[in-house]
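=== Structure Prediction Worksheet ===
Name of assembly: unnamed complex
Input type: mixed (protein and possibly other molecules)
Chain count: two
Listed entries:
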Amino acid sequence: MDFRLTEAEINWRNEIRQFLRQELPPEVESGLEEADSDEQWRFAVQFNRKLGQKGWLTVAWPKEYGGQARSFIEQLIFNEEMAYWRAPLGPSSFGINFVGPTIIVHGTEEQKRYHLPLIARGEVTWCQGFSEPNAGSDLASLQTRAVEDGDYFVITGTKIWTTNAHRAQWCLLGARTNPDVPKHRGISLFMVEMDRPGITVQPIYNMADIHSFNQVFFDGVRVPRTNMIGEKDRGWYAMMTTLDFERSGVQYAAGGRRTLEELVAFTKDATRNGRPLARDPVVRHKLAEMAIEVEVARMLAYRVASMQARGLIPNYESSMSKLFGTELTQRLANTGMQVLGLYGQLEPKSKWAPLKGRIERMYLTSFASTIAAGTSEVQRNIIAIRGLGLPR
Amino acid sequence: MGKDLVYQADAILAETASRLADLLCLAAARLKPFPRFPGAEFETLEVPPPGAGRAGLGCVVLAPDGKLYEYEISLVGDSFSPERIENLKPLDLTPAEFIAYAYMALVAVAKALEQPPQGGSRWTSG
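=== Predicted Assembly ===
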């Protein structure tokens, strides 16, 4: 494997870095989530619009739909830099990565004309309406109903773990339009404006006391037929066939590298029992271990992107990268807690919190990282079956 | 008294299911390249539901190993990178159910063999 970048790719990385250095002030660099406060959210929205103006929200989209059709390696570079600089992409992420590509492949010309430019410019926030309290995240098992009524569908049901539902203007929602066929054949996709009568959003606070998840209730919500994406009852197939994007998991390595650099800088300044922390052999060895792991995570991610660039479809290699990357995040948070000592437990709002409280925040939120992107158990099973050839 | 008839019927079903399973493996090996939903992680051929299909089953597929699975997809992930997770869930079918699905799978293979290969074929890793 040769991961050397071309001159054009190095220039691309430098261009992104220069922009991010200029646009992200220190309080955003602190890595606090954009969902934390209205102020942070507003900043994130403005930042996303600037990315949109440069065409950088849609680096992976085809050119005919306003994208830049960047190569997998260029996408990897972009994602790596965004993660390293802790760029707040929450307002656009779901629209860019799921809604836009679904509309591109399955939408009508009118849907493309209206929605794609808004998404590409970062002028709209979408949330996902797939996970349900009684169905888990399995798309074919969802129970929310959509019943035809003239030119409308009437939607009734509940969605859960809906990130940013309280801030989103639109929701991409899966609902059952035919209960009398095999379960994956009776689902349709709808674009629902979040201010429609009958929608109630209830907050769910996570362990770090951050409100980004919600439970959303749809009580007889009328949605025009023109807001259905693709054919009726074919929503499962629509979600199955999406565009191919870079999916290396490089963000875990990039975010980890940034945290490691900050921990190293901290140990150079801080003292314990009158001695610089950086001279403590236990601390030094722990940080050295983390440096190795960050590099391993990066190489695993580069391998995935490099396979995609060669027209291969990574399978267990993606799982290795994701599994190692997400568990690395947890190990780094643990290491950070040990290095910072009791001060590590202070929240971001405390003026005494080292590294602006990021380690405390990282420690609490990292528990979800081995669940959110597919549990570690699922990833290990994929590696066992597809990588090692063990029986299912 | 009449239970022996049921035992015999069960034995015939089990034997038929076993023979169809063997035939399915041979049939799957003839699909080159093996089909795939565009953009999907796994190479699979969708098996249309038989009339007497099991209620509650989702998308049943034939995989290159000649076995039948349920193709599951989930949308999960944090705000930075929403992910589509795909999984092939092994099926636990009775012999009678297996016969129905295996027949539909063989019809699907025959149909796929008659169709010219689709453009833009992809390769799996490893």
